[in-house]
Fold these 3 entries.
Entry 1:
Amino acid sequence: MTELSIPTPHCNAPKDAFAKTVLMPGDPKRSKYIADTYLKNAVLVNDIRGVQGYTGEYKGKKVSVMASGMGVPSIGIYSYELYHAYNVDNIIRLGTAGTIIKDTDLRNLIVATGACTDSNFAANFGLRGIISAVPSFKLLKKADEMVEKLGFKNKTLFGQVLTGDVFYSIFSDGEVDSCVFYDSSFDTDRISMGNCFRTEEEAEFEVERLKVIHSMKRFTEPKNYAWDGINYHYYFYYDHHQGEIKIGSSRYYKYGGIYFEAEVNAQNCMNAVGEDRIKKYYFGIKEEDKEIAF
């Protein structure tokens, strides 16, 4: 086994900072929550790039928890460094998932007997074929025993899980479609442009948001309309008390967003685009936000 020097490029923890068993959620905030809620005398041992790692005690045993970040490449980096630099024995991935099995209920416990993926990550290492990562049989057997002991049998499913590199992108014709991440120049360009979405719904929302912004800009003031303390500039703001879009004005201060040369232009914009669409796509107001009482 190739050993790495300590600290590693992604972890500044000292030698022996990690326990032999590391719990690994994806979200750094979840890592902190686990440490604060379940571990005694938890100490922050890593915070490089905000990926928080803690070591503490659980029922008298030394246990660590550290986030993996999002995606196959990210957990590949952190798990490799934990195994090869810090001599960790067990990494237990924790997290949430969707399902394609109809008889799975919310809050069921899923124990992965294998982790499939369509990720291109393994191809970078010249591995031939499609490999499904499987857990240590000893660890899996222990998990099964604990499920039985804790009385979770009727709420637990054992089976395969799937991690995909599929994301959604907006194409030049305005249509949304799924893509597979191959770490190509096209993929990195999409990310740098902000044209990479986790769900189809998020991408479709962005399409509508851009349409609203484009429609609003047809009514905006000329670029050479001066901020000289004399001319008024008109803009929209959301009144949370009334749940309405209001028109404000300023001669001196720019609050960001879109400005209009005259109040009538702002009103014409609201009439043409629609107040509800401006609320939803320009201000990001959700239905539940409208019902908040002050």
Entry 2:
Amino acid sequence: MKHWLTYILICPIEKEVRYVGITSVSLDKRLEYHLNETHNRKKAKWIAWLRDQGLVPLIKRIDDCYGTRKDAERRERHYVWSYLAKGCRLFNRNYNYGDGFAEYLKSNRISTKPPSRRYPSDRSYTKQQYSERTGG
């Protein structure tokens, strides 16, 4: 059993959540890993774009739990789904968003209509549009 943090990466320009993750190390160490990783190419390109402008993503703890990795992954999935339902364009991958996603929305009374925002409507994605855009 470990202490797990659930965190988000936020675009410092758009102030939009772009990634949800879990870690058992400090947020500083986890951010450093994100700055150097390459296996999630779309996220890596976004981070490289930010770094070209002298910026890095903001990292923020949103939850924590003490348990197994599986327990932490359950919480992470909850937050991924929650942010997707709010229209966030996440770089998360390796999730089958269809598996339980509709039930999650219904059980939490979350509308599938794009949220109203100050941004242009093309920034709000349905689950299918998100999958097509990210290849996930």
Entry 3:
Amino acid sequence: MLIKATKKIGKSKKSKVSGRLNTLKKFIGIKKKSITQINYKRKIKERKNLILEYKKRLKDQAKRIEKFEKKRNETIKKLRGLVALRKRKEEQLKTLMNKIQEKYYDGKDFKNSINIKKITFEKASSAKYFNKDGTIKNEFKKYVKDKIENSPDFFKPIGLWYGFNDSWYNWCYEDMPSYISSMNVHKLNIPTNLNILKIKTIKDLSDFHNEYSINYISKDRDSNNIIPELTIQHIDWVKVKKNYDGIEFNPYMRKYRNKYDWYETVDASSGCIWNLENITSEYLGKLPKINKNNEENDLKKNKLKFKKLIS
């Protein structure tokens, strides 16, 4: 009996313990489940916050892009306006230059005149061209001859240059006033029997260029060979000088000056002579000095004086 009672007590204790264990397991399982749910909800909330923050960033970025695009479009509009303004200004400048060129450079006022004077300038301080009697100095003759034989010219020939009436003076007046400051003015007497090539028309110019032009390839390259070689057209003046005693560009056809590289450097209705034998000059007078601090007034005086000298 005692043994049976003891067994019953043991069974009841075991059932109680197992019951408690089961209850504890259930509680722990519920707790685990609730903790998992809480973590899940927290993660969902965190993700929602991240999405909201991302959307906010995208919105801010979109605003910045919109602001940038607006500013960029305004800048482009301004630049287009500036480009258009520049084009208008360039056209106005071109028109103005054409008017100046027609007035001063083309020689239209004197190309058909009988009384054409061939005028040259000489620095009063050096006087390297002419003797007092009007003849050409032997030193200058030797210099020109030496250049013909030993040093090929590039764009323009080396020799005694002169303008027709006021053509060269007017170019200096507009573009290089210092060249007419304190200059001796001479009128050249060139014998009619000299063989002087006369470029009078666009056909003369084209024929001359086609016969005597040479392509010069510039070797001024950078070390990395980024800058391309430049092909420049110039004249074989050595060949020209073998056939002629001099050359004249009268009138200077300003509208064709950009047609050939070398022709642009001629500047005005002018001539150059390299056979200096029997060339004489008549001294007309000296032009006044042009000071930079009083250039405008000095130029006016200079021009008045020049007009008197060649009249």
